UniProtKB/TrEMBL annotation:
CDD domains: CMP-NeuAc_Synthase
Gene from which this protein is expressed: pseF
Record-linked Gene3D superfamilies: Spore Coat Polysaccharide Biosynthesis Protein SpsA, Chain A
Protein EC: 2.7.7.81
GO molecular function, one term: N-acylneuraminate cytidylyltransferase activity
PANTHER family: HAD SUPERFAMILY MEMBERS CMAS AND KDSC, N-ACYLNEURAMINATE CYTIDYLYLTRANSFERASE-RELATED
Protein name according to UniProt: Pseudaminic acid cytidylyltransferase
Domain of life, source organism: Bacteria
Entry keywords, A to Z: Nucleotidyltransferase, Transferase
Record organism: Schaedlerella arabinosiphila
Length: 240
């Protein structure tokens, strides 16, 4: 069964300029996603969907393909990830290239690894699932959350006020790293969360939203701690 990795990397970024190619622990952040996809060995094609010639150039230098640039329609602030993926799959189809599965990998996901992608693809095929999404468990139970009404705090779900945290059902959220889907099922439904979507649970330590410079700094700190030895050896190689 054939598969394609699609790394979605739009050029514009208001809060963090050139976010998708900003240097992260020594190299442009998009390279982590490209390298993970290449090293996983589970993709027949690895491409970057972008509207930026600069991003396209960096992507191609590091082993990804950019056979076409995004259309104006999928480059604006209102285009969804599903819109971008659909455009890519249709463009490949017109070129006579069809795939059974695609992985959508975000370009600012340095904690995605080759082993995660390979493991996730294997799990999806083994379970005969329609799709897979990387998720992380909420660190605090949402069932114990507060709302503010007329300046006063109250439980959003008062029925859980006296329930022990360990007795509450775990709730997860998308960790913003990758999705894997059946191309056929996705094109029929135009959504990344299909009827038979399985979770790929990621540890909280390996998850970090990167929306602000502060988020970026936290992500670099986490990455340095988690992959400290590898990162330090690279820095020593540079200096020697």
């Amino acid at each position: 069964m054939s598969s394609i990795a699609i790394i979605t990397a739009r050029g514009g970024s208001k809060r963090i300029p050139k976010k998708n190619i900003r240097e992260f622990c020594g190299k442009p952040i998009i390279i982590y996603s490209i390298e993970a996809a290449i090293k996983s060995g589970v993709f027949d094609e690895i491409m970057v969907s972008t509207d930026s010639a600069e991003i396209a150039d960096i992507a191609e230098q590091h082993g990804a393909k950019v056979p076409f640039l995004r259309s104006e329609k999928t480059s604006n602030d209102f285009a969804t990830t599903a819109d971008v993926i659909a455009e890519v799959l249709e463009a490949y189809k017109t070129r006579g290239q069809k795939y059974d599965y695609f992985a959508c990998i975000y370009p600012t996901a340095p904690f995605v690894t080759a082993s995660k992608l390979a493991d996730a693809m294997g799990s999806l095929k083994e379970k005969l699932a329609d799709a897979l999404v990387s998720v992380v468990r909420y660190s605090f139970p949402p069932q114990r959350g507060f709302v503010i009404e007329e300046e006063w705090i109250k439980y959003q779900y008062p029925q859980y006020e006296r329930t022990r945290s360990q007795d509450l059902e775990p709730i997860y959220h998308d960790c913003g790293q990758f999705y894997i889907c059946s191309c056929e099922k996705f094109l029929n439904e135009h959504t990344l969360i299909l009827p038979k979507t399985m979770p790929y649970i990621v540890d909280e330590e390996e998850v970090q939203d990167i929306d602000t410079i502060s988020d970026w700094n936290i992500a670099e700190a986490k990455y340095t701690v988690l992959y400290q030895e590898d990162y330090r050896s690279k820095e020593l190689d540079k200096k020697s």
